[in-house]
Amino acid sequence: MSRTTAEHVIEVERLHVHAGASHILRGVDLTVRAGEAVTLLGANGSGKSTLVKALVGVAAPSQGTVRVLGARLGTDRVPWERVGYVPQRAGARTGVPSTAAEVVASGLLSGRRWWLPRGWRTRVRDALDQVGLADRTESAMHVLSGGQQQRVLIARALVRDPDVLVLDEPVAGVDHPSQEAFAASVRRLVERGVTVLVVLHELGELDEIVSRAVVLRHGLVVHDGAPPRPRADHDAAAHRHLHPHDDEARRPAPLTQNPVNGSTEEVVS
Ligand SMILES: Nc1ncnc2c1ncn2[C@@H]1O[C@H](COP(=O)(O)OP(=O)(O)O)[C@@H](O)[C@H]1O
Ligand SMILES: [Mg+2]
User: Fold this and answer.
1) Could you identify the atom of ligand 1 that is nearest to the CA of residue 88?
2) The CATH number of the domain where 211 resides is what?
């Protein structure tokens, strides 16, 4: 059962986002209902991160409206303490000189207080346990693998016990154990009624967890419905890896794209 009162947890209407001269989102409509697990797919540069940023108030709409938990961004007070957000990783490892526990604990800070709430140590340990890192609480971030660092950032979003969780490519380029730990924690969250919107490069481990896929292309929704299933001639097991595709940004515009997820990978492999 859902823990949220607003039936439409996320409601985006006719959303346009510009950055400088570029028109990044060109009229996006998106509704996510309480308890749904929705994936946002699309080729690099299609506007996924921009849409997610608009949802959490980081990118400003030039037109259109965004409502989160019933509150309209820009006019109403949004209950951000009920929203967890994991941004897309900027790059490879950074030598952040803090421990896993400290990073997770920072997820408990809010705009209304600067101190940590009572019982924070237990909550931090529970959140790290949810991503399979209970034994790394005191590890410095820089000694963890890229996948483990990413799991710490997911724990940082989970420690708030959010009703809505928004994740931007949480498993891109991470090791297999981290992908599995991530899929397991998303499954538990969905079972608990948490609403999840997750940007993915491909479905991978999450194909049985997400109920709906929204595909963006050039700033427009081109598909909203059943998640794309692996093709019969395309062995699912062989395609359960996710790769970072760091080279994609430098690649020229593809001539042929997969009609479902906009990726060029299916046509080149
Ligand atoms: N701040 C910005 N200024 C200019 N262009 C941007 C900015 N942010 C994103 N873009 C461009 O908008 C497009 C969509 O970017 P993004 O939302 O990051 O796509 P995705 O997450 O699907 O890869 C890309 O062409 C990107 O280069
Ligand atoms: Mg992105």
Assistant:
1) 21
2) 3.40.50.300
Residues with CB under 6 A from ligand 1: 19-20, 22, 24, 42, 44-50
Q: Is 115 exposed, middle or buried (0-12, 13-18, 19+ CB in 10 A)?
A: exposed
The residue range of the domain holding 19 is 8-268
Total structural domains within the chain: 1
Residue at token pair 């016990």: 161
Q: 164: which residues sit within 8 A by CB, 6+ positions away?
A: 4, 9, 10, 68, 69, 82, 83, 84, 194, 195, 196, 197
Ligand 1 centroid – CA 34 distance (Å)? 28
At 229-254, the pLDDT tens digits run 766 554 444 444 333 343 333 333 33
- State the ligand closest to the CA atom of 172: 2
Distance 45 CA to ligand 1 centre (A): 5
Q: Answer yes or no: is 2 within a domain.
A: no
Q: What is the pTM of this model?
A: 0.80
| Atom 16 of ligand 1, residue of closest alpha carbon | 47
What is the Å distance from ligand 1's center to 55 Cα? 15
Per-residue pLDDT tens digits for 23-33: 999 999 999 99
**Atom number of ligand 1 nearest to Cα 51:** 17
